[in-house]
Amino acid sequence: MATRSENTVTINQPVEKVHAALTNADYWAYIAKNLSPEPGEVNAFEATEGGAVATLFEVLPLDVLPEAVRAMISQALKVKRVVTVGPLTDNASHISYTADVKGTPVDFNGDIQLTGDADTTTLSYTNDVSVNIPFMGPAIEPKVGEALGELFTNEGQLTDTWITENL
Fold first, then answer.
1. Which DSSP letter does residue 63 get?
2. CA 35 from centre of chain
3. According to DSSP H, which parts of the chain are helical?
4. How far is residue 120 from each of residues 9, 18, 147, 160, measured CA to CA in Å?
5. How far apart are the first and last CA of the chain?
6. Tell me: the pLDDT tens digits for 55-83?
7. pTM over 0.85
8. CA distances (Å), 43 to each of 46, 58, 83, in order?
9. CA spacing 20 to 30 A to 102: which of 76, 83, 141, 162?
């Protein structure tokens, strides 16, 4: 059974620019390279009707993981994350993502509502975290959810930086 977590990230950039970043292959290359201390990569990027689908191979080092998770693994986690960005309509867009952590019983997915105006953009995340370990999974899932919140906050800061430097 999955645990749901919610978090909100505010980016001090216009909604049009944030959406433009999320639908730009160079942006995703920047995120993959800078989100974690160990660089990841964009495996695939596809522009869609007003949106995009980005497939990222990311590496999460042990030190960014919750202590309960670090106790059970001995190396950095390899994550395949697929982000689907919908078109921007009336200053809003629906984004979804799935993530699979290779070689572990951990996966997570979520929906993100992107809303904003000419000054700021808000990303409202609803995440479902599943840790399929009998008895321990339900205790670990909230901790993974907290770590995701921190990760998405960092991604928001990187987004602000990328937009300032590129758009």
1. G
2. 9
3. 15-22, 25-34, 67-70, 137-166
4. 10, 9, 24, 10
5. 41
6. 999 987 777 666 766 676 777 788 999 99
7. yes
8. 10, 10, 12
9. 162
